[in-house]
Amino acid sequence: MATAITDLPEREYILPGTRTCAGCGLPIAYRHILKALGPNTIVTLPACCLTILHGIYPKTPIAVNAVNNTFAGTAASASGLVAGLKAIGREDMTVLAMAGDGGTFDMGIQALSGAAERETNFIYVCYDNEAYMNTGVQRSSATPTGAITTTTPVHPKQQAKKDFVQIMEAHHPAYLATTCASYPGDLHDKFVKARDIKGTRFIHLATPCPAGWGFATRETVKVGRLAVEAAVVVLYEIENGTLRLTGKSLNIARTGRKQPVEQYLKAQTRFRKITPDQVEDLQRQVDQRWQGLLARADLS
Fold first, then answer.
1. Distance between CA 215 and CA 266 in Å, rounded?
2. Nearest to residue 34, comparing CAs of 8, 16, 6?
3. Tell me, what DSSP letter sits at residue 153?
4. What is the CA radius of gyration of the chain?
5. Sequence-separated (6 or more) residues with CB below 8 Å from residue 205
6. Consecutive 10-residue runs of the chain (300 residues): their mean pLDDT?
7. pTM attached to this predicted model
8. Where are the beta strands (DSSP E) in 101-248?
């Protein structure tokens, strides 16, 4: 069972006054990430929505140290921080590298792949809002089939979303997990576990975005939950080669109560031009992935 919300740590590392959009899913997730990792954390981040959250120098609402880096250089920056901290004997610090899907799936993949192959000792988080949201909702390789973006305004995206988690699994990281901003207990527990493991830890974080996805700001948590209930997002972790479903996804596997993808799509205007064939194809993609995970999962 995931930690109950009432049992999460009380100390806050995000102070009032962030510059994110109303209803942004990222501060929800980041709040609980920092609660799990604690004060001995140093964050490295590229130009992204998280940069907006951190604020404009010299003021920030974030109560941990942070380093800004280039769009493609998050994992390289994290590798340098790990080496520097080791050189001065500060191995009690957790290095957290955090970037969006554009800075991970696309521009950051080279540095991340190299660091993961070397088993560099940091946590890498891709917060995935499925487009380049910070620069205007442009298509990324994380954008799903049938979604409208500002660079696919007339015809929705035709290609399937890149399965980046599978790419990272092929690197055999010390710990790999998926989670969602709408499930803070599941998220918190996975970061607590990742904090205490050595080597490269990769966590994929599904982050609903009202501005880019097209839903009311009050619906952020609901839309994230719809994604998990339809298995568009599956909550699981892989450790020592064993895949375990967690939280709501484990419950769905045991009860068989997976919702249709169409219910999730209808909650967002970015899918208003999706064709019936694309809905069917997206459902097929989701079902195929779900069955593949079920076949591997330890459901005990």
1. 10
2. 8
3. S
4. 18
5. 29, 125, 126, 127, 128, 178, 179, 180, 181, 187
6. 87 92 97 97 97 92 96 97 96 96 97 98 98 96 97 93 97 98 97 98 98 98 98 97 97 96 97 95 96 91
7. 0.97
8. 123-128, 175-180, 201-206, 236-239, 242-245
CA-nearest of 18, 67, 27, 60 to 45 is 67
Residue 6 and residue 29 in contact, taking contact as beta carbons nearer than 8 Å: no
Instruction: Give the distance, in angstroms, between the CA of residue 7 and the centroid of all CA atoms in the same chain.
Output: 23
Q: Domains in the chain, ordered, with CATH?
A: 5-296 (3.40.50.970)
**Which residues make beta-bridge pairs with 152?**
149
Q: Do the Cβ atoms of 177 and 238 come closer than 8 Å?
A: yes
The two three-digit tokens of residue 57, written as one number: 């120098």
Instruction: Name beta bridge partners: 44.
Output: 67, 97
Q: Which residues on adjacent β-strands are paired with residue 202?
A: 124, 176
CA atoms within 13 A on the CB side of 289: 21
Q: Say if CB 95 and CB 122 are below 8 A apart.
A: yes
Place of tokens 């690197």: 171
**Side-by-side strand order, sheet with 41-45:** 65-68, 41-45, 94-100, 123-128, 201-206, 175-180, 236-239, 242-245
Question: How far is 226 from 148, CA to CA, in rounded Å?
Answer: 19
Strand positions, DSSP E, 103-253: 123-128, 175-180, 201-206, 236-239, 242-245
Q: Which of 195, 184, 171 is nearest to 42 (CA)?
A: 195
Strand-strand pairing, 94-100 and 123-128: parallel
